[in-house]
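Q: Here's a chain of 321 amino acids. Please give me its 3D structure as tokens.
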Amino acid sequence: MKVTAIAHPIQGLIKYHGLKDPALRIPFHDSISVCSEALETITTVRFDKNLSEDVVIINDQRATGADLERIMAIVRRLTYMAYNNDHFKIVSKNNLLDGKGLGFSASGFAALGFASRNALKLDIDDVSLSEIVRLGAGSATRSLAGGFSIWYADRDNRSYAEQLAGPDSMDFMQVVIPIASDVKTDEAHIEVLSSPLFRARLDHIDEMLASMRTAIACKDVGTIGRLAEEDTLNLHAITMTGKSHIVLWEPDTVRILKEVLRMRAEGVSAWYSMDTGPSVFVNTVSRHVKEVSRRIASLGFSKVIVSKVGERPSITNEHLF
């Protein structure tokens, strides 16, 4: 059976950094994110006994190495549960190929898991599927949950995500500016334990998570933006002070951050946010989103993407093969 799913990447609001258990992709602490509707991964999955081999194509390239291993970890778990030994074909594409740190690994593995569950007609709940897609990318749990969501590091001995608020729960807009980088996300996560600042983050993170949950419940966009900005600085300080001194920011990153600060000083609702990469999300509200995107474009950026909050994955009949 052939099934195609669409999933949306996530912007980390209170981000996870580092893995307590890299094999099972268990983080040190909970994390909270929001999906970006304008960005998406579309993935078509087909299981067929008549296929002669397994094929995985990502953004027009045959998947190999570590990427293929992470995909196989999910597919093998699901086929084992479905008692299915058929070969499969997977084709997946992102609607944006520029930029690093935009959360596409989250949407990629969420779309893969969601499409595969449906193609295999597997009767498992969302929590169980969340635990499986986590094996590909931890943030896939939150892409699977959609909207504003929290990924629990350990909740009753399980690690999964659930939605805190839906896409239409508040007036929350994102302006996304993709910036390229060759740094691998996993490299940054490995670095955290060598930073002298990481222990301080662990001591502080529960307070940040509680404040963010309250802000989301109260639909307080200003506090959400402020906390995400503060967490961005915290995360990148840890990355920069790890043993390899990884600097993920590019000159264009700094130009955007300074423009956001200027806008806010002028009364524009704008707060920056970054994951493990140089690309920037500017969080704002609908009445200011045109001004924010205009100001960023005036800096010379040709690709400025305006996005609402994205929902959980969905099924489409527009297959990739």
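Q: Can you summarize the key feature?
A: Residues 198-217 form the longest helix (20 residues).
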